[in-house]
Design brief:
This protein is of the alpha/beta class. It has eleven helices and nine strands. It has two domains: about 180 residues, Vaccinia Virus protein VP39 (Rossmann fold); about 60 residues, Orthogonal Bundle (Helicase, Ruva Protein, domain 3).
Length: about 260
Amino acid sequence: MKFLNKKSLGQNFLNDTKIIDLIIKVGNINHESKIIEVGPGNGALTKKIIEKRPNNFIVVEKDQRLVKILYEKFERDIIIINDDMLEICYEDYLKENTIIFGNLPYNISTQILAKWIKIKNLDKFCKRLVLMFQKEVADRIIAKSGTKNYGRLSILSNWRMKIEKIIDINPESFSPSPKVKSSLLIFIPQKNIYEFNDPKNLEHVTNIFFSNRRKMIKKPLKYLFTNFEEIAEILCLDLSLRPQDLDYFTYYKICEYYEASIN
């Protein structure tokens, strides 16, 4: 049975068996693994995951047409949640030894990643996330300070995750072929280096800084703190630096002081 992809859902189905086999390998599934696969599409990766006989297997698929074919193929082996991956309360499904797989729609990939990163105690339940992104987004996720791709997404992702890039993937590995390359990343949830009252505050702080990345950091610091000069002195910040010049940990410290100032 053939399926037309829905552009509104960002559907590009992975059909390259070598890449699928690589995803299975780096996923490191065993019989104790609990799997959540988001956006399974036509089930090419789903089939390979089932062959590893995980303890529990949940797939999240919004497209009712694809839900039907997934039921026809794998009804005995998977639990299907027919819903938007952004609307799911993942805390209800996370169990010890969970592995999350996802070929993420380009138009919502950063939103769903941020949603997972902010889950409380994620490291206690989730062993790893094996995720595919548009290469441009992946480059922003793994970017280091001082580079053009460094920004809000880099800082948030590396607050909670140890991230490894596995491979870039050509458009021909998908059907239909997207216009851009993709990248496969592995995320290993870590215990927070900094405990925040609310991770949304880190998003707020970085948004203030990177809303105009060409400006010196004096302006965003002044916006966040009435005593910005004191904060700059405590953190040994040169006020003439630009937002991309500050490393991850400096932003975590700034957020720590910001939370203290609003409580």
